[in-house]
Amino acid sequence: MGVVGYHWRRLSVGHKIVAPFVALTLVVGLLVSAVASQQLAASGAQQLDLLAVREQDNVNTVFNSIEEQQLADLRLLEATRGVAAAVGAGDATTLSGLLLPLVANHLPEQIEVIVINASGDRVLQLEADAEHPDQCRCETGGDKASFDHLDDVLNGRADTYGTRYAGLSRLGTTQLLYTIGPIIDARGYIVGAVLVGETLDQVLSLVQDRAHMQLALFGSDGVSLASTQGLDLPMPALSVAERGEVVQRSGTLSKRVTAIGHQAAIVYIPWVLRFEPRGYAAMVVPADPISSAQNLLVVVILIVCLGALALTLLVGSIVARSITRPMQQLIKATEEVAAGNLQHRAIIDRGDEIGHLAASFNSMTGVLRERTTGLERLNDEMLVTLAAAVDARDPYTHGHSMRVSIYADALAVGAGLNALDREAIKRGCIVHDIGKIGVSDSILRKAGPLDDKERDEMRQHPTLGHRLLSGMPWDRIVPDIVLHHHERWDGNGYPAGLTGEAIPRVARLVAIADTLDAMTSRRTYRDAYSFRRAADEIVAQAGRQFDPVLIAVLKTHRREMAGLVAGALQVWIPRVVRKRQPQGLAVNEPRLKVVS
Fold this sequence. Notes:
By secondary structure, the chain is of the alpha+beta class. The longest helix is centred in the first third of the chain and has 67 residues. The strands form 2 sheets. A 6-stranded antiparallel beta sheet has the order 3-2-1-6-5-4. It has a 5-stranded antiparallel beta sheet with strand order 8-7-11-10-9. It is built from 20 helices and 11 strands. The two termini are about 70 Å apart. Among the domains are: about 120 residues, PAS domain (Beta-Lactamase, 2-Layer Sandwich); about 70 residues, Beta-Lactamase (2-Layer Sandwich); about 210 residues, Hypothetical protein af1432 (Orthogonal Bundle), CATH 1.10.3210.
């Protein structure tokens, strides 16, 4: 179960919904197929039994008709006038003259007649001529006759069925199926016996013509006696127990065989002569129609099962899709919210549990957005206050961080950045100079140019600011801006000396905004540049100090940027910072219009 459970847990919800129905359909299909196969087998066996019974009746009918015909022929010969006297006198010539016309004209063509005197000697034998079918061969005299029940006939013994007996005897290379009865003279004495018979080959040919079936006859010892012509199927031998079941207890057996692409059943039935078992017969019962019907039914069952499986898959897929599609929408909504898009909502119009879950998710997202917005507002106010505190250390940089954020946001819009990146850029701009907290006031407030040592200390503020923000859970954009906003495109910037696109794009963008505000702001050692002059000098540094692509953005939006620079002097500065303004810097001073 460990492996199965592992793979089951990794399946999608849709597969978990469809899989049980598919498995159930397969189980039901297998059960139906098994039951149907069992029923088909039983039905096939029953049909074979019925067919075997019918064929057995046909065979018995043919053998009974042959036996009745032989009895009729026997009565005709016995009743012929002069036969008894000729037999009693041993006159073969007279006897031949009496019987030959009957054999030639009235009796079956394949019949064989043997007349025996009271001593058991052959007197006359008449049989069909194989070389001349329209003629008979006649033999007189001969050796002692040896047939079953001959002594019973000559001695006048009778059984339950009378004084005439049926038997089977070898005659040359073939077996003779015969009926023998007494010849009685006018005084009532038995003067001999007459035998009427046909070879088994002739009998089976008649069976084949009348019953249209293939048949083989076996003795009670299992020895083959004769078979119909064209027998093309193997006849499995019967064991001693099976022969006893068929011959002694008059049972039936059947065995399936296949030959030359055809299926058949070999049905073994008892072979009875004059109500006495003499062996068994093996009948070939074609099973192709039954097998074809069974195969057709199997195909129908298979088609039905496959159709049921396909329908189950279709319905299961539709049901699973109706459940998993809103779940996928809900998952996508959670991913959007997890990525920071708190404005995203799951649009699922359902009245079931999934719809309630989506409504709860949207409500939770709304609450989360309100709280996040409040925290961001508080965070922004703290950032602005912190930036103002940093800027307040230098009376000439009041509002610098806020103005840089305004210019950088405008450039970000022109560069096609999304709203989330723009928010992060504005936060990064507000704290981009936070590292100046670690720079001494003497350097920040110095009226003239810095010497090398002071310049080295000033250049540490990006690294210090990055170190201060490293433990805060902010977007990667913020620390990138703090650390790299003084890098140059040509690699001559600080602190890492990065070159070209190795500098984070947001830092390249903020570098332009930072320089623009620095040049348009007044310093102790110079007056503020006009926007035109500042913009021209910045554009001239494309490919050296600044990213050429972002400079192209500045050139494209030059008019909008000029308006921003003109209006960005009115920036919000926290009250606590305003109270710390140094003397000599009026609130209504033209270059610093403070709105509190």
